[in-house]
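Re: the pair you flagged

First of the two:
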Amino acid sequence: MGLEAECTVRFGGKASRGTARFEEKEIVFRGDFRLVIPLAEVKTARAQGGTLAIESGAGMAHFELGTAAEKWAAKIRSPRGLLEKLGVKPGSRVRLVGLEDGFAGQLEARGAQLVARAASGVDLVFVRMDKVADLAKLTALRKAIAPAGAIWVLWPKGGKAMREQDIRDVMDGPGLVDVKVVSFSDVLSGLKLMIRRERRPAGPAAAARPRKVAARQGRK
């Protein structure tokens, strides 16, 4: 079920009281004028002072939603299914570096466990990087994740100070490999990095397998 609210909307020099509804693929407002904003065309969505400001191909629209403004903004920035694409599961141990509190709330609602900076054996690290120099953090972050854990590097879309190829150029040093790319939000792209399989420490099960083979050979 979509979100719905009675509110005032300002758009294109006009203002009207009416009903706004958050549908699966668009936001629809009906009042003295009708406004339809496809979610695929949203460039930015920000909540401030109870007002949701949405910039799309049609221009800037302001929805006076009160306390619901942040909830609507978060839903626009993180469409249904994004957390699944990011690999976040209930119980996942997650560390955030340089990200806003809104994403932390989504993770907690999903049932993930946010961990402190000093934690190790982390399932997922989400780190925002705005320039190439920030990539030096990958070495330390690689030590923080579990053998099958992942680092999501997030960087601004369309920027020149940081590009997807810049990440790939340095990931071999810490022994990482890229496995997936996503559109994290309207302004950030994401690249998923994992430890190369040949560099992952063998777990207890792996260590037990050779002993089992040896035992079978001894019975021959």
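Second of the two:
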Amino acid sequence: MTTIQWQDSYSTGNDRIDREHQLMFEIVSQLRSAMENGESMATITQRLETLSQHTIAHFEHEEALMQSRRYPGYDRHKQSHDNLIKKLDKLLRNLQTNDQLDLRELTNFLADWLGHHIKGEDWKMIVFFHKQSLYLDPAV
């Protein structure tokens, strides 16, 4: 079973981004708990919708940061965001139409995606921001 919890190794050093990531892990964990506790599909769907809404808001925040700093990896990073949003939308549609969804597989996928994305794309972005800050202001 995939661990669905925030780990200190995911910390980017940006408080707002880290809080948003922590909330994403919390929502995925709540989704897993709802599934394991046999909660209704309406509750599970609501948790998935909450995750989708929070994820979109988080991605918009990251994308605005990347654009404001002229991050060279913006297109690749945004594509990764767009792909997850499409997958979440598809999962929500599937849940709403036929209730046939392996929720354990879904929560494992989401936890794995978050961990890999944070340690991959997000870290590249944060390293760029740090280098840029040092270049722009040597006192930082």
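The chain has a mean pLDDT of 85.

-B.
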